[in-house]
Amino acid sequence: MTLDLNTLHFASAASRCAYVVVFLVVALSQRRQTYLWQWMGAMGTSMAGSLIMMSVPPDALPSIPVTMVTYWLYSASLVLSWTGLRTFFGRPVKVGLSACLIAFPGVLYPLLLGAGLTVRLSLAAIFACCLVMVLLATCETVRASAVVERLWSQYIVSVAFGSYALSFLLSIGMLVCTDLPIASAESARISMIIDQVLGVFVYFGYVAMTAERANQVLLRLAETDPLTGLSNRRGLQTMLGHSSPLSNGHSAGGVLILDIDHFKSINDRCGHASGDLVLSAFAARIKAALRPKDVVARWGGEEFIVVLPGADPQELREVAERLRATIADQPFSLPTEALAVTVSIGAALTGPTGASFEDATQHADAALYEAKAKGRNRVCLGPITASPRDAQVQAVDVPLGEFRLARLN
Fold first, then answer.
1. What pLDDT, in 10s, does the model give residues 9-27?
2. Which residue has the higher pLDDT, 190 or 107?
3. According to the model, what pLDDT value does residue 408 have?
4. How far is CA 183 from CA 74, 88, 119, 259, in A?
């Protein structure tokens, strides 16, 4: 079945209109996401260009004014796609450059004709401008982003824009290197079919990227403690599963569980707002005192957990004592007073000479309770081997800040 050009132009305009409506609904619910408005503008200008081209006979070249307006609309569509991608990935938009890219093709066409260039070469120059815009959009989808995690759906857009670039290259080659007619129903039909198919992939890719990013944000919120900005228990398990071998129990390391001493009395005496300030400042101090590869998370309430990949017993002791001193040596600034805060820490080893990660957290938790029972503001080290079902931390009186090795009963 052969599709006539009017049908293809109408289908192109109708599909873009549908995407505009969809993006309008999404953009109204997320008004601050400017990339949605940019992509909606890209679809709208492309739709307007298709509607204008419906009035042009298939075997005739449009007039210069119609050509200028049409290329301005199509250039605006490509540039808005590019700027939308930059905004989506957290990159700055260059307004001046964007405006020049939109205006240049429409102005260039009559200038080249007036300079004596043939229609074929003038069109080839316009297609070269469009090729630059498409390549800019393609580059945005393949570059790494510091703001947005890499998305599977962005590769759909990469392939679609890459195919657009190839089609422009072929068109330029045909105009420069052949004598094939540039105003024929067959060539226009092929161009419209290619544009229709690739346009669907681009706009579907935008929808998929928006949905995939929203899902990532929801997942990140579910795995992050809103008060401290640290990972919660669920987020810790995800981090260990993705980036640390500790969770399988086959690599050496250490686990610390920290509990703020007498935190309930802080809330009772100073108020919950001050308690929240203490928790936030506590988390910031702990994070600043750790190595880049260490992991810290809020374990629950006033308890925090620290995972130390590759730590040996000596390093475990040193890090734990440094964290204890970091909290105890400097009061926390509250609106009404400077509050002295201390922390009790339970420590345990994981890996070949220690327990699995799950068992190590139980060892560390048992050691933490011993530290609290023996005066608080101290560190206790749990058993190195055996399961917590068979191990019990023994109470031993020690000077403040020193360590003891719990032995097996």
1. 677 777 778 878 888 888 8
2. 107
3. 29
4. 19, 38, 11, 77
Q: Is 237 exposed, middle or buried (0-12, 13-18, 19+ CB in 10 A)?
A: middle
> Confidence band (pLDDT; 50, 70, 90) for 276?
very high
What is the rounded distance in angstroms from the CA atom of residue 354 to the CA atom of residue 150? 36
pLDDT of residue 249: 47
Kindly report the length of the chain.
409
Nearest to 75 by CA among 105, 43, 36: 105
Q: How far apart are CA 316 and CA 322, in angstroms?
A: 10
Q: Contacts for 113-121 with beta carbons within 8 Å, 24 or more apart? A: 113/64, 119/61, 119/182, 120/175, 120/176, 120/182, 121/175, 121/176
Q: Return the closest-CA partner of residue 168 out of 75, 85, 73.
A: 75
Backbone angles phi, psi at 384, to 5 degrees: -85, -35
Model pLDDT, residue 113: 87
Q: Quick one: pLDDT band at residue 62, thresholds 50, 70, 90?
A: confident
Mean pLDDT of 141-150: 74
Largest CA distance in the chain: 98
What is the pLDDT at residue 242? 59
